[in-house]
Amino acid sequence: MTDALALSAAAALHPALRRIQTTARDLADAPPATILATDFEQVRGPAAQLLRDAARLTREAGAIGTGPIRVPRSRIRADADLLGADLRGADLRGAELRGALLIAADLRGADLSRAELIGADLRDARLDGADLREAIYVTQPQVNAATGDSRTLLPGTLERPSHWL
Predict the structure, then answer these.
(1) Is 81 helix (H, G, I), strand (E, B) or coil?
(2) Predicted pLDDT at 70
């Protein structure tokens, strides 16, 4: 929710995001009996939809690139199987990569600006020289599981892993 609240293009959703965030915090601090009695699908479902909507608004707010891409944009979708895919230098701006399998994918020099990466598996993905500064919902564990170098551009909220060159 914190990441979604930082997305200016999703400002119209911020009040609802704050309510869900408060609900989640309240549940985390609730007594065990309250937690056990809670139907978490009633919280998770609306929260997941808000996150998808915030990412969509952000993707749509940015100009989608027209540069070369080795995998046609029509095939880049949520839950895509891109295991070991050659995406070097790909223009993935605004791509919906939610839950995508990018294990061992070659993303060297790729532009992932405004690409939604929530739940994407980046284990052993090559991120050398890739631009993730404006990637949506990219996390420290995802970055830690990938390889990169000094040219890889990360959001200011993430740290460059010590194992990167």
Answers:
(1) strand
(2) 45
